[in-house]
Amino acid sequence: LGVHYWDDHGFGPSTVDLRIFIDETLVEEILDVELNNHDLWEAVTIDWPSGTVTCLNGVTGGLIIYNCGPH
After folding, report:
1. Other CB atoms closer than 10 Å to residue 35's CB: what's the count?
2. Are residues 68 and 39 in contact, defined by beta-carbon separation less than 8 angstroms?
């Protein structure tokens, strides 16, 4: 599951709260992730049908955020 900040329309960075629900139950919550214009955050994988959510981290342990540039 990824989050793409497609276009900031000149407003600048946004703070993202990601909540994942499975069968109406909150199974993962990641709060206060700052994304800039054109960023793509590779957030989690969800295995199905088990519903196992795995948070993704880069090689340095931080979040995986790419700047995709204008399209």
Report:
1. 19
2. yes
Q: What is the pLDDT of residues 12-49, one digit of tens each?
A: 999 999 999 999 999 999 999 999 999 999 999 999 99
Please tell me the pTM assigned to this model: 0.87
Q: How far is CA 45 from CA 7, 9, 12, 70, 71, in A?
A: 24, 29, 28, 26, 25
Residues in CB range of 66: below 8 A, 6 or more apart? 39, 40, 42
What distance in Å separates the CA atoms of residue 26 and residue 19, rounded to the nearest whole number? 7
Amino acid identity, position 23: D
